[in-house]
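New to this. Help decode both lines:
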Amino acid sequence: MTLVPDLPTSVRLSLWATRAFAGGLDLSTALRLAAPDADHLTGGEPTLAAWRDLGERAVLVALPRPGRLHGLPRGDADFTDAALEAGECVYVPGVGGALVPDVREFGPAGDTGLAVSWVAHGCDPTPAHVLDAWSLRDADRTLRGELAAAVELLERSSTTPWASRGLRDLADEQLGAGRWGLPDDLPAAAYRLLRTAATLAHAARLGLAAPDDSLEARSATDRADALRRLGDVADTALAHVTNVAALHLAGYRPGRDD
């Protein structure tokens, strides 16, 4: 089965689990909404229930990559290695603790399914001043600036993934508006930035997966560097915006215009 590219599972779980903590949605439903393509789901619910019972109101997300641990809570080597291998995790800021998805295909060729297993790990709490410093304005400003810089570098190449029906259009089409499936009470600005960050991150991955062999070595290197930087910035913004949205859903920012 070829899976349509989608939001990271942990982004979905962050928002749906936070919504469940606020009431009106059970945790098993939140887990299913976080992984709508999964044929088999295990783990996660006991840990989420324990976090809720301990008074946690928001579930946050990190999207780490090798050499880029920004936003990942401090924990032991097992947690860090697992989060890096998955490229994602969710965590709670108050008592500390994380869930890392183990996503695998199963079954014979041509008839495979998707299994998602959530594995619990320990990690340190996140200081309140870190949470308070996050804002949609900062994420928007950073994303716009890095996008402009990346496009400038890409346009120096003889061909550019932004020309004609470019990578951003292709990525947006593949992600598909109908597949976002997020809580409907997200702030409008957060929803817009989530779409932008996720689309640009996917566009960067598409570009890296389809290099232009007609480019000279230097141009190809510049193009790859620009795409990697854009992907990193877009992933960081995606986690940042998700966390701000989760804090809003949790009621931590009543009346605050981020």
In short: The longest helix spans residues 217-249.
